[in-house]
Amino acid sequence: MPKSKRNKVVTLSKTKKKGKERKELIVNSIRQAVDNYSSIYVFSFENMRNLKFKEFREQLKNTSRFFLGSNKVMQVSLGRSVADEIRPGIHKVSKLLRGDTGLYLTNLPKEEVQRLFEEYEEYDFARTGSTAIEKVELKEGPLDQFSHEMEPFLRKQGMPVRLNKGVVELVSDFVVCEEGNQLSPEAARILRLLGIKMATFRLQLVCRWSPDDFELYKEGLDLSDVESS
């Protein structure tokens, strides 16, 4: 017998999706920030770590504002050409918002900004798919850093281990990763267990805009990269 449509359960709660309103809010926030801060920077990042970035942002919250998200939305906020830019020359900033980049707006002197970004560097454990920066090889013999309870887990990661009188032991040499190769999920887990950090979270300045000036910082870029089309 077919189910009665009268008995159909209807969910009254609604989930608000990110859409046009969300994009408009970001656009308006960026445009307001342009009015409030004297300089705008594009920065690129490697090995983003959200918690570390949040801490860095908190340190500068009294003088600065960061924006991360859709490059296209940030470009629209500033204007992508001379015809629609919100300030003279600011479309050059939009053209450099590509890949892993963000906006940094601040009232700090440019020398202070350069120092902060150049000195910022945080080390962390590499994730699956990251490139190994060195070869890590474990030699045959006891692994005293691991308790006997870890033996089954290590074996699941592909390590040739056994218990010898309650001590975890490698029965043969084992290469965790090779320099230049991508890390497998197993290799990333083993490196974490070994306490070996191969990822460096960095922020690099790409360019700076102010009402009176425009500068490029990143090597390999020149003014032809930001010429209006």
UniProtKB/TrEMBL annotation:
Record-annotated Large ribosomal subunit protein uL10-like insertion domain positions: 126-196
Pfam families, sorted: Ribosomal_L10, RL10P_insert
Gene3D superfamilies: 3.30.70.1730, 3.90.105.20
Record text on subunit structure and interactions: Associates with the pre-60S ribosomal particle.
Keywords: Cytoplasm, Nucleus, Ribosome biogenesis
Lineage: Eukaryota, Viridiplantae, Streptophyta, Embryophyta, Tracheophyta
A single GO cellular-component term on record: cytoplasm
UniProt record, GO biological process: nuclear-transcribed mRNA catabolic process; ribosomal large subunit assembly; rRNA processing
SUPFAM superfamilies on file: Ribosomal protein L10-like
Principal location listed in the UniProt entry: cytoplasm
Name this polypeptide is given: Ribosome assembly factor mrt4
CDD domains per record: Ribosomal_P0_like
Assigned protein family: Belongs to the universal ribosomal protein uL10 family.
Function: Component of the ribosome assembly machinery. Nuclear paralog of the ribosomal protein P0, it binds pre-60S subunits at an early stage of assembly in the nucleolus, and is replaced by P0 in cytoplasmic pre-60S subunits and mature 80S ribosomes. Ribosomal protein P0 is the functional equivalent of E.coli protein L10.
A molecular function (GO) term: RNA binding
